[in-house]
Amino acid sequence: MFSLDRPWAEAIVARCAALLDDAETHYLRVLRLHRERARTELLYGEWPRRAQRRVDARAPLRSSSETFERLAARPWADRARAEALIAVGESRAVPTPGSLADLNPA
C-alpha cells in the first residue's frame, strides 16, 4: 500500500481495498489509522459474518453498535444491531412500529 501522508486518507484507501482483497489485513490497518472506528468496525464485522465466521464478527459488531447507540446514530445503530443479531444466530426480523405485529382485531 502506498502512503498518502494523511492517516484518514490512507484509512479510506485501505477500507476500499478491503472490499477487493485480503479484507482482514486492510480492516485491521484502518482501525489502527483512523478514528472513524464505529463504521470501520461495522464493515469489519460484516465481512467475517458473511464468510460464516460468526464468532469473529461479534466483537467488532458489538462495539460498533454500542458506539452508534451512544451517538444516537439511529440508522447506523439499527444496521449494526441487525448484523450483531445475525452473528449470534438470532433472526433479523424484529417488529417495527406500523408492522403487522402491531395490528389487532378491531
Q: How helix-rich are the residues, as a percent range?
A: 55-70%
Q: How many angstroms does the end-to-end distance come to?
A: 63 Å
Spans of at least 5 consecutive residues whose pLDDT stays below 50 are: none
For the largest beta-sheet, the strand count, sense and barrel status come to:
none
Identify the overall geometry. flat
* Rg, nearest Å: 16 Å
How many E strands? Answer: 0
Following the backbone from N to C, one meets helices and strands in this order, namely HHHHH
- The percent range for strand residues is under 5%
Number of domains: 1
Structural class: mainly alpha
Counting H and I runs of at least 4 residues, what is the number of helices? 5
Mean pLDDT: 79
Give a topology summary.
Blueprint: H1 7-18, H2 23-33, H3 37-50, H4 54-71, H5 74-87
Explain this structure to me?
With 106 residues, the chain is mainly α. It has one domain (7-89). It contains five helices and no strands. The longest helix has 18 residues, at 54-71. It starts with 6 loop residues before the first helix and ends in a 19-residue tail after the last helix.
